[in-house]
DNA sequence: CCCTAAACGAGACGGTACGTCGTGTCTTACG
DNA sequence: CGTAAGACACGACGTACCGTCTCGTTTAGGG
């Protein structure tokens, strides 16, 4: 039987990994995302293409990895830190902190990743597991507490509430462009809250 | 001035055009959208690649054209026909008619187009002009009437209301997958309406 | 029966013809012969491609026509004018007059035409009929007189004598490059004559 | 310095190389030389076009390589083997052996290559370096010995003597067609010798 | 002198090949 | 064995010309 050549993560060279992720991010921001390619990343990182294919299945996965690594702590810390007793304030803080603070200027990368994910189911799954899912869980948690507090109507499904909130953000990002500023994020929270509050 | 070689639409061969659009749609649904290529469309339509490049700037533009052409009447008729006095009923009908009726099974094509548009500004513009913009205008019109009727709060910006409604649909399509059925579209309208109604 | 659409030379537009030939020559000398194309000639002459195809079968034929037209009188006059009683002098004059005088700087065009003719039998035939054949006849005539005069050995086939003379010229043009100057043309005649003279 | 991507000959795959050359020759003889294309060779050899472009600059270079490889030993052995004391016999043997024996049926390939070389200076150089030059050197060597022996006049430049001989062959091949048989090659040598011998 | 058939400009069209790029697999040589 | 380097088969890219084919629009010549 063939040994199936599963690479051994223990022997992975961390410097090489870092060089690849760095190169991916640098090319994404410099040359424009459309020109990101495995070949380009390999050349820029001074790395064999083989090495990239050994550890990542696609260019999207590399970019996601590079982008998410810089994001993770940032993003989840901000989402977790909104723990006052005022749901409206917390929601505004979460939306602003996540969308403008943590993601901020890298919004085009997110858009590119989601675009790529429409052609690549594996990337889509990775994206959900890595970014979308955790974010939803953290926000859902806060919404559940708001339901307990009576600040959100009891018949609201937290995940549908998230659709209502994040839908606005992604819709503007991906479909109907417009400014992404504090006025917008506040308005997103306000508009959603009008529908979430108990009547 | 440079000759610029702008082709003359009057000399365009309608049979050729039809063959190309048909081939594009057929390949999109048969072989999977990832495999759509100018080369493939040309071969399938029995057409020179040059002829495609003469009239469309990219494969995305061809698919958009083919897809939108079949959609247009359908979609806009459904959006226009919701003219009862009950905004809730009309909204549900619009969302259901557009998302499930007109778009229906071709939702993956829409997702693919928006994905493609994230890499291609021209396609993004075309998509907005051809699909997103007109849809928004038609819905905005109905919302304005609902404001006049007092069924929607006077301080609501119709376009932000559309973000609230369509955001949910596109978010589920592009970001966080889930069923697209009548229960969902009704819920989309319900949830949005909770926030839009006068208090 | 189909009318076969043989074009009527009487209705041929002489200005158009002139414009095409002029454009062909101009492009040949300016842009380099490798870039000569029917499309290019048509554009430059402000003429439809159809018009070129109506009167010439290939780009080689156009260039040959253009080139030969300027050459003909020149070339044949020079070949005919060598009618002294001194065959050696006449031969040198013929070779020099034809190769350096009439053809002169357009030698690359001739090389290109012969190159093209290796791929295109029609052009090869045209070239022989238009240039090679007549030249050979004129020279053969003078050689026959030299045989009568006793300046060339009686067992010499005039056409083989021409092979001996012109072979050197074309060999240098097409195969083994070297200078084309008066020293060379004289040497060509000298060397050939050594073999042609009666022993 | 620029990386310049010079391919490393040590890593060249000999099987691939052989497949390409074989395909080139096969297509040249089967489909006719006019139809030889990089695309066709690649398809026939089961090889990527990139691989051809990596090692050869043009289709002409591929055909030359394929053709010359089969020719080389053959041709030069024949030219070298004419080492009797009779220059006339040796010359006839060289001309016949090279032109009818070694080249033989592949004469159209040679004509096509020289035709191609009229449009492609790189190919012309390669052709001279690979075929014309070495041939000339070998023949010049024998002529020099003939001068030493007194069988060729002392004032004869060996290279001009070669022009005289080979000129006839190439002239017939490229310019004024005629049979290529033993009568012809003998006549070529005879006619040339009349001019080369001491008076 | 008009009428009609052609030659003409323009360029769309189906093709073939071009030369380049990126993909994902592979082989080689090194540490 | 992981790695840098890059050759390789493949498929698509976007471009250039090919030769054929409509389109109107001149432009003659024969009725």
Automatic annotation (TrEMBL), chains A, B, C, D:
Alphabetical list of Pfam families matching this protein: TetR_C_11, TetR_N
SUPFAM superfamilies attached to this UniProt entry: Homeodomain-like (SSF46689), Tetracyclin repressor-like, C-terminal domain (SSF48498)
Residue range(s) of DNA binding per entry: 37-56
Keywords annotated in UniProt: DNA-binding, Transcription, Transcription regulation
Signal peptide: none
UniProt cross-references to InterPro entries, sorted A to Z: Homeodomain-like_sf, HTH-type_TetR-like_transc_reg, HTH_TetR, Tet_transcr_reg_TetR-rel_C_sf, TetR_C
PROSITE patterns: HTH_TETR_2
Protein name as it appears in the record: TetR/AcrR family transcriptional regulator
Organism from which the protein derives: Actinomadura chokoriensis
């Amino acid at each position: 039987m063939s040994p199936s050549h599963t690479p051994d993560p223990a022997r992975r060279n961390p410097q090489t990994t870092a060089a690849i992720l760095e190169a991916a991010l640098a090319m994404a921001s410099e040359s424009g995302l459309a020109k990101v390619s495995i070949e380009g990343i390999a050349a820029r990182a001074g790395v064999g293409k083989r090495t990239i294919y050994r550890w990542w299945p696609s260019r999207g996965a590399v970019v996601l990895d590079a982008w998410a690594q810089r994001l993770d702590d940032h993003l989840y810390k901000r989402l977790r830190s909104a723990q006052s007793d005022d749901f409206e304030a917390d929601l505004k803080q979460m939306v602003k902190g996540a969308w403008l603070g943590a993601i901020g200027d890298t919004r085009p990368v997110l858009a590119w990743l989601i675009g790529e994910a429409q052609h690549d189911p594996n990337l889509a799954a990775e994206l959900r597991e890595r970014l979308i899912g955790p974010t939803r869980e953290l926000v859902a948690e806060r919404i559940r507490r708001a339901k307990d507090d009576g600040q959100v109507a009891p018949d609201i499904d937290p995940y549908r509430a998230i659709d209502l909130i994040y839908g606005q953000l992604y819709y503007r990002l991906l479909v109907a462009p417009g400014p992404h500023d504090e006025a917008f994020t506040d308005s997103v929270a306000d508009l959603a809250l009008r529908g979430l509050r108990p009547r």
